[in-house]
Fold Phosphate transport system permease protein.
Amino acid sequence: MSSSTELTPQENPSPPPPNAPMFGKPVSRLGDRLFSSSATAAGVLILVILAGVAAFLVVEAWPALWADAEEVPGGDGIVLYIWPLLFGTLLAAVIALLIAAPLAVAIALFITHYAPRRLASVLGYVVDLLAAVPSIIFGLWGLSELAPRTVEPTRWLEENLGFIPFFAGPASATGRTMLVASIVLAVMILPITTAVIREAFLQTPRLHEEASLALGATRWEMIRMSVLPFGRSSIVGGSMLGLGRALGETMAVAIVLSPSGGITFNLISNGNPSTIAANIALDFPESSGLDVNVLIASGLVLFAVTLLVNMGARAVINRRRDFSGAN
């Protein structure tokens, strides 16, 4: 007995649309290619500009680096000319960082975990707006308001804590001291440091916070065990970014500080070391010839220090582990 099977004709499938993605292969669209090329070009452009600035500083500073010591202002050579300026730059920036970093952490914690939502939003805008204030305004504020108000406190520091090198005195009668300049710098770097730390605290996994509270932790214990460890690297990175800003500040320091040269840790006297940026701003208009090359050589040192600080900040931030709520 023979059985017959019916063969149904196989229909030809309709061709896929021209823009349909193939399985396993992403579609390369014109907009994606343009965006990728533009982003790559922007990154390369930044590197080219940075290399150009570095090359300009090296070329212009080269005559000063090999000049005789007698030809350099002061007659002691390029190293002894730049070293007091570098010391004053680092001293002012480090003291400003020591003042600003704890304040930035406290402000970020208050905005993210203590303040009501509306108040936190307003405070966030206010702190961010501080970054838009020109540095010369901070300098005028430090000269006219802050400096006179520090005269009596610095005299008290001299009388009671004069055995500490930072307050050895004699206290300045005008208040134009390294201490005032550092306080002004601390206010200036506060916005950028607070912004970085605040964003890190906001990214703390909600599950970690709720788990700590569910186990009986108080709000401060939850912050200490969950929020601060998660944002530790961002605290360091934001502080280093603020340090880089303080290192390069010019007008505020030039207006507030009354430099006299030399190297000293005394913060309340008139004998203050200047900073590299302020020294360039004050001396460049009247300089010519080799003096200009000497100032550019000091700028090269500041460029290198600032670059190292910012690279260190980025390295610290990039080392932060990515947590998820399931971890």
